[in-house]
């Protein structure tokens, strides 16, 4: 062939030829992916990878701007000083995640910066504050000087170790003994308001059987002499506590009997006690209204006192209609001057029905409550000066302050670090033996209480005594099996055992009573995780610390929460968790002088609590750690550990699970093939609890009163950061779905399968209709169900502990 002068360039360069990868078709995606991977591995063994003249890829672009402007510069500088990020170095990976392969997002980046300047030293107290709710001096005052019977005064001094009254008792007892007018008691928490109204009632009932000098007059007063006083309280726990205090006082007069009627108890047993006879009755408004309507043996003709303890709380909880009915029924019955036995009651008891209203934060301009219960009431303060000032100025609103010896403080904690900071605070609290015996943690909703109890308790089973151990007479309390448990993470060498308790309104009444009793009588250091159900009136001895993990929905609730400590002159401390930003302004409401409530950053709390290693519970994921750890790395390791606990997959169903149920063969007869179900991925109960707690917490956060929403603004809340506080790696959805997600859906019988399953479902559906709505057709049942749900929604109030969702 002749040369035509055309030159063809076949120069392929120095790089080796690269064979085109084979494309696989057909089969499943997993099979194609596996075939492609095997082909790549075979090709890599045959020929080396092609050399590239491109520069190496930079793992971290230093020129990129910061994602968020509100970054903690101090922590960022420390991080960069420890691990310099250059073009040649890889991105920072926590040391505890190197061996596990799980990387937790850093807790110390992208956090909003606090507005408060913490460089200012906290104000120093010249001398410790003098307790403002302590008993008075024994030399100046005693119960005998207030007009009480000698028998009662000696009983208080010797048996109850109460030798001197408090200020509110000094001003109230003589007033209620000598005068028959209504009274409104207002004093700070822990000042003894319960005894302030109980002692005059007991004194005047005892006067029926005693002479003026205290000697018996021959008249026998017993449980069948009549019902003389009714005491209303908003919660069952407060009713129980009032009954316990009254029973201790009545030991000096054993012929008098008190009892309780509260929700959750057997109405049959309550009717039996009322039939036997009761002199002083303690009740919740709802159950008392029920007995007034349906119990014939409950005679209120001899009732001389009606006490409304925590009256403002009862109004907030939706008991207004019940209080109106109770007051109306008691006032409608004519006051009997004598009882059925002919005993003259007007000789010692009030000649009219006396109403006593008690509260620590009640405002005098609450017109509804005054119109319902009080008639020309006397306003009694803890000090005479406040009474005279109130009479002169005629103010309609009384100011209230916390006890002087109570030390309040606030911790500014970013949302991502809330759970770690709480554990660090508790760990530092119980680091020394005997410094703190009992602590109460207030949380906004019941779901969040359940989650924090489960995450903080020790998951290891309780050790059983050996079989050869001698038997003990004490039986285990079955009511506290799920509400009392040893704590994890917060123990120390000084306190190797810390007992964890949980309490909220969704628990059964026997469980609530047993849990509160266990916390009160616990000899070891103890922590109670609870809702606002424990914020009113409960007097638990030796409570040294109150932690408001979630701020109260209204400032009066905050006052009652911190009032669980520093009672009767004892010292106490209250700590409030606040988020950086608008919530920092909430400190202005805590005290007339905001500087008296110091604010501290979370760094100091976490550094103090995590100075030593955290004792992780056995049987839980343990992250790999280095020999020398800083408090920041310990915090990240602890957060990763908690997240791994939530992600731990429980035992999945075994492969080859068939459709057979209870040993029955699958469909198609005995010789039919069994159909394998696809193995479903199960989620741990702790993860489900964390998601539900997060949803309920966000919904509860939106229920702050209107006047305080400038501090608690939903638009300022970072849901992703808040999810980290519940051990979640992303914020779950369904926050605004309401309770419909948790209701059970009933399938119509026509859509169900035929056979025994349809018969069983139909019978259960009709049983549900018959039990709840009295049977009938579907339209009637729907109307009755809608009416019941409407009534339930009207009765829902703060007593439900915001257990929304």
Automatic annotation (TrEMBL):
Protein name: ATP-dependent RNA helicase
ATP-binding in keyword set: yes
tRNA processing found in the keyword field: no
Subcellular location: Nucleus, Nucleolus
Comment on protein domains: The Q motif is unique to and characteristic of the DEAD box family of RNA helicases and controls ATP binding and hydrolysis.
Catalysed reactions, as listed in the record: ATP + H2O = ADP + phosphate + H(+)
UniProt family annotation: Belongs to the DEAD box helicase family.
